[in-house]
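> agent: user asked for a holo structure of the chain below bound to pyridoxal-5'-phosphate. Plan: (1) validate sequence alphabet, (2) canonicalize SMILES, (3) run complex prediction with ligand conditioning, (4) return tokens. Step 1... ok. Step 2... ok. Step 3 dispatched.
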Amino acid sequence: MILKSMNPSLENLQLYPFQKLTRLLEDLTPNDASLTPIGLHIGEPRHSTPEFIRQALINNLGGLAHYPTVLGTSQLRISIAHWLTQRYHLPAINPDTEVIPVNGSREALFSFAQAVIDAEHTTTQPVVVCQNPFYQIYEGAALLAGAEPHFLNQLPENGFSTDTDQLPDAVWKRTQLVYICSPNNPTGKVLTLDEWQHLFALSDRYGFVIAADECYSEIYFDENHPPLGALEAAEKLGRDGFPRLVVFSSLSKRSNVPGMRSGFVAGDAAILKKFLLYRTYHGSAMNPAVQVASAAAWGDEQHVVENRRLYREKFAGAMRILGDTLPVSMPDAGFYLWLKTPVAGIEFCRRLYQEGSVTVLPGGYLAREAHNVNPGEYFVRIALVASVAECMEAMERIRDITRRF
Ligand SMILES: Cc1ncc(COP(=O)(O)O)c(C=O)c1O
């Protein structure tokens, strides 16, 4: 059979960073076969899934006999709305109009662009803006929606801030959607209230929608200072509701259930109404058993406190072990070390693999060249997702290899 045509924009999609990594390392064999391989390249949480979530899933398998609705059960949306109001000190969130459950934030981040971008009724190509480095889904979502990605570099000399002045007025005029990841993957940076104020002002001026990816919001280090959220920022700044603002949240990292595929979107009711329509055709309702387990997970904080304790321990160990050898610093939040490397990130990564059987991700794979620089080129991303013991072992190997440079 002859394949006549497919969407030509598919040709513009880049290989996923992990595929690039496989190619980068395929000609290497670790020097010491007795060293246990330690993979810290994928941001997959590996702490154990809480028993009560597993049990809720098992107890509700009867739900498989029914088609779920795209809007999900009110029980789930009420638990999410309750979580949001508590976590972000919001006066109220309407569970019927301001929340939609999604099958992990990734599919929602992607499909959101397809619903938001209007590439047909404009004389110039629409623009999607995101930070750089960034989560690659944003770029693919933009390209497949017919938009052109533009980037806001996050640079160490600026404390990885999101400086919107990097793009000219002409680009902002074409911008229809801005992805903001806070806490950021990979830099760990949390947007400040000032930065949000600035972005909201730009959104008011140019009319673009803000997609705030907050899937790392619950991985932080000081129990008394959780990261600022976008809805919280809007409320603090006295905005009237959440105009043109939608947040994306997830249980994957918070509750160690990346395989459950459970998250939600919340915010501007008018946008969510249209997004719900889109999702009806897209066919993205959440499995009924997952809905019940998700409601239980959003209703419990104790397991999340324990989860954070483990990350805190790993970061403290990483700082202690690497501190004298590499320029490590604590992220604001999240579980990544965004490490400045003494040689190009690609070379550093190859050496860690060859000499220490440790796999990390070259920062350049998470970024694009923009404004004459690839802001990830001299970085690697290290996901502190393995057990405490494995992470500490990996840090020691990284330190020892770096000392031999
Ligand atoms: C920045 C960012 N956003 C979204 C996701 C997607 O997470 P999930 O689909 O599991 O909610 C990830 C996963 O690693 C991520 O790093």
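> agent: step 4 complete. Summary for user: DSSP finds 14 helices and twelve strands in the chain. Residues 43, 104-106, 109, 135, 181, 185, 213, 215, 250, 252, 258, 263 surround pyridoxal-5'-phosphate (CB under 6 Å).
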